[in-house]
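Students often ask why we bother encoding 3D structure as a string. The short answer is that it lets us treat folding as translation between two languages. Here is a chain of 170 residues written in the first language.
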Amino acid sequence: MAGRSNSGKSTAINAMVQRRNLARTSKTPGRTQLINFFELGADKRLVDLPGYGYAKVSESVRRHWRRLLEAYFRERKSLVGLIITVDIRRGLNDLDLVMLDWAEGVSVPVAVLLTKTDKLSHSASLRQRAEVAGTISSSTPLILFSGPSKKGVEEARGVLAAWLEHEVGA
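And here it is in the second language, the structure alphabet:
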């Protein structure tokens, strides 16, 4: 699970695994500062990466996060998929596109959760989704998502389950 700071990564994790406080959530960007592993079953883990972009942390911490994420994608052989959270009100930015490129570069399937859809009207959410869809590969699952309203939770869970089952059956 990757995304900009405060894009809803931890909320998405909690909603997908149906545990209210498994991943720590905060209104303050940059709270997740380490790579956090959550055991889902035998040899199955969901990983919460530190947010990229805005966070009230020093430049040296930001550089450390970048090196950490680059090493994670370059060296992690067990990575079977990447979910990128994007606050639907903000849309994709350059760092989100870099994450999509990294995933493609290491042949890891990716899905995009457009989070916080409960903050927009249904028609505004659909407009934002169409805008993002025009920027990314048509084969990339693009899910309207809201932890509080549970919108898109089952669809995201299905994507994750398919990746994990594919790896187990490989």
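Translate back mentally: The radius of gyration is 15 Å. Keep this in mind for the problem set.
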